[in-house]
Fold each of these.
Amino acid sequence: MKKYILALSDEAMADIEDIYDYIAAEIQQPETASGYKINLIKEIQKLAVYAGSIAICQSEYIQSRYGPNARRINYKKMAIIYVVYENCAYIKGVIAGCSIR
């Protein structure tokens, strides 16, 4: 079984921290924020096994913002956007699914 190396962009790491900060500070639920962040990262880690099996996203918004080979998986209401280069899954961003046009 092929394994992919996972790499997170600075933008993706900032997106994850922004989500955590929003839940912890704005909604005032720090425990929920911690659990959400942990489970979001676990979902990203699963890509090590199946990143290449997800179809390239057909959304023009995703393609123009993240490149022509961008793929998407969902975690709750968030979209994890990544591209596959050989044996590496490069996480480019984590955005609200409702923001995708």
Note: Helices lie at 10-26, 30-45, 47-50, 60-66.
Amino acid sequence: MNDVLRTMMDIRGKRRPLAHVPILLPKLGGFLVQWLPKPPLSPDAVDFLTGDAVADVGPLVADFGIRLTPLREGLATYL
């Protein structure tokens, strides 16, 4: 995720430090607000957001014959 954020900031011409927080803090926040009528966060949501998102796109490209847009190129089109 750091690479994605750095690429986004580079395209926008911004320089900001990335701040990391221990995973316990957002999970605790999610635990405390999960019983609100419309909770903005839950401990499970934090797990989902911080989990790995790895996929093999080889079969997708082969089966559909498409060219995937690289991150930097895609972000540059709308940032």
Note: The chain is about 55% helix and 0% strand.
Amino acid sequence: MTWDVIVVGAGPAGLLAATRAAERGRKTLLLEKNNKVGVKILISGGTRCNITQATDRRGIIEAFGRNGRFLHSALAALGPEELIALINAEGVPTKIEETGKIFPASDKASDVAHALERRLRRTKCELSLGEPLVRFEPIEGGFTVHTPGASRSTRKLVITTGGQSFPGSGTTGDGYVWAREIGHTLVHPIPALVPLTTDETWVRELKGVTIPDVMIKVSECAEAPGKFSGQKRLPNERGSFLFTHFGISGPVVLNVSRWVTGHVNPSSLFLLCDFVPHKTQQELEELLQSAMKEESRKQMAGILSIFIPRKLADALLIQAGIASDQKGGNLSRSQRKSVLALLKSCPIPLSGSMGFRKAEVTSGGVSLKEVDSRDMQSKLVPGLYFAGEILDLDGLIGGYNFQSAFATGWLAGESV
């Protein structure tokens, strides 16, 4: 065999897989179809790169829901602390923000990408840029790997080509085709951590308005409690919410987006928004009544701006059929109930999402049932390994998905 290990894809998983394999003395080749490594790292987090989350291994696992337990061995090999130590050792200090997100202190994703490339280049790993994989085939004792200009043989093959999110970075789903051709099952890929769209004019006119704490639920009904595909509990999240020119975004929206993109008819769904989640309905009603009594001559929009941004207050009053300059003391009981309902469960009809083009990760991919979590090796094809976003693993926003990619890549490199 020409090579001990060939790794395909120089993203977060591939960089660490190739580095670790080479550090262990394996003759390693890293193929990357782009002309530089870590393209997705460079554009992530608004070019800041949210490396991981300030939590323990259990916290990372919980962020992936039912599939999180697949990560036990990978995180045992490279948990959040070890990952940060690795980045720090390359001369890149990091910082923890209030949300627990960990970024390079410089706020430059390029520092992270360059650090990982430096470590890779200190090994004897050969890096071939601008060379995409076309196809591969099993042969006795390994694989033949074909690129536009060459064919090579290798004992072990590691596929770390990512999913379909941000296709401009090179993640165009190539790995899914190869995995399927060789017999692997794919869980249907859908966009995740993606902004959602609506045709509601009043929502889009609020573009730029941010609310730091909103509770949202995805529902098939416009009224709470609503329903969602027979589940007892609606998919819900709480966090920062942003109105945009196309609809809605912000961490809380991104975290529920997979429920929308995975639905058979996303345009039939509603987002039920609680804009004052720190108060119960009864507490908020009492506060409203008190404010309307004490400020009876004050405009209702001004009273509502105690709890929500003024622009949103104006919009909700219009939705309730109430003039924004109506005095608080003149509001009827039924009008007050309408306002309260919109504050605590405002339905926003959805039209869909911004798709893979704006998705931060892909939900779905190579079925975890067909990959050994102890070493990332295929259970169907000996010597073939998968790591990173190509796997059916997607977690919450906040660095969890990069941690998964780094950890599974590291474990693959430890195992080949």
Note: The chain has a mean pLDDT of 95.
